[in-house]
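CORE FACILITY INTAKE
Project code: CF-77B
Contact: R.S. (postdoc)
Sample description: multi-component assembly, two entities in total
Requested service: structural model of the whole complex
Turnaround: standard
Below are the sequence entries exactly as provided by the requester. Do not edit them.
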Amino acid sequence: MAKKKLHNDPTEYVSEMLEGFAAANPSHVRRVDETDIVVRADAPVKGKVGVVTGGGSGHEPMHAGYVGKGMLDGAAAGAVFTSPSATDMQELIEVCDGGAGVLAVVKNYEGDIMNFQTASDLAADTEYEQVIVDDDISVSEAEDRTGRRGVAGTVFVHKIAGAKAAQGASLSEVAATAEKAIDNIASMGVALSSCITPEKGEPTVDLSADEIELGIGIHGEPGVERTEHQSADDITERITTDVVKDLDLAMGDEVVAMVNGLGATTQSELYIVARELNRILDGKSIAVHDIWVGEYCTSLDMAGCSISLLRLDDELRELLNYPVETPAVTIAEP
Amino acid sequence: MTDDTTLVVEAVERVADRLVAAEPTLTELDSQIGDADFGVNLRRGLTAVTETVKTDEFNGPDDVLDTVGRTLISEMAGSSGILFGKSLMEASDTVTDGIDYEAIVAFAVAYSDNVATQGDVTLGSKTMFDAIRPAVYALKRGQELDDVTPTQASAHAVKACEYGVGFTIPLRAKKGRASYTEWRSVGYPDPGAVAVLLILREIHDLVEQEHDETVEPSLPGDLDDVL
């Protein structure tokens, strides 16, 4: 029997979601007419670098949930797991251009990259830069494929770039700081069950009841290992070990961590993972500045979680703590 | 509208119908090696294309193809939308003066080149390019030989494309989401390549009908004998 879902015509899935999202968050955002673009209610912000992103839907609250003061100026939503159109991205870039240029935070998927490339060519009057996020360490660095995917760690890039832009930095400064963040982020996920896309209505990944998949992508792309289900502590240790190793973290380093739910995993489970993550990092004498626990970058109704770590320096810590006001993340003025 | 314009509109409508009808097959293939969204995205894009060509007025074949390209970019989106769409737009200039063998070859070359540069692909990456390039070579080869009729030329393109699709089956995908499936993509044709073959088959059917001539898919010259 097909899994029960709350939607109407699957072809209207994204459009109806955005309509609801805009209706629920009028103080933060507005939807640009006849597009699948959500921008800050006051966009464009004059004299500030616009920070934008875009990608397929199905990862809520990514992307539109991060639109607001101190983070993103706008986001383009594609169909579920499909890159938005270059034409929507072009409009996004133009609408968010307050005269200081626009930085796009692009996740490392060919569709997103090709469409943003074309969009930036079309939006020729806007000074444009982009950064590519590829934080998923579960993809080996083989030369003959697309490479590491952009996953939940992208939220930290939105936060850092958005804060830098809010402080009045120039386009090249915002881009350089975003690059620095990207170089210091690593993520890895685990799926306990597959997601089900609204159009297909069936599991994307054939994962049996007693199996888990380590390193799975946020669209159900294959991971590094399929294994029997394990305890939260064992899974957390495996992922954390790999992420720490990838970042080459050492005693005395400081990180901000994220335990991200993939869509169908409870908050309580995420806190159990956060507990073990904190314990492991503490054991390695890695300072934990903060742990973000919750749903930040989901994969529809996939069960499981991902762990992301961002190594902090003084600049990144200050930007991370900078006030932000979005539907999904709020940090009040001190 | 000129005859050529009407012909291109008809070709677009027929190709769209054929691909939309093939959605279940393409979705099934894409769920083996990708993320099962290709058929759905194709249907969304082509439904918009069909509506557009029904209602718009066009100033020549190039205008039709340019408009179809724009529609695919905005409505299909994703990596396939931008590749199919932008390549159509970039290649549309080649048919400004009408449709003849020379123009078709120029169009095919321009389309194929754009897919290669924009998608950053070479032969053997297990993409639609593996189906496009052999068809382009077959068209060019046919042009070099004397007395190849339009129907024979499109039969050549179809046959070469069939070989190209077959060539993708034992390959490991090196591009797109399928590339993450490692060896699991081996044994299935690339869905984009299959879509290209369906497009060429539909165009061949149309050419046969226009020229009242039936030609089975075959390679140009004596290449069939070699194989």
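Facility notes:
- Chain A is about 30% helix and 25% strand.
- Chain A has a mean pLDDT of 95.
Invoice: internal transfer
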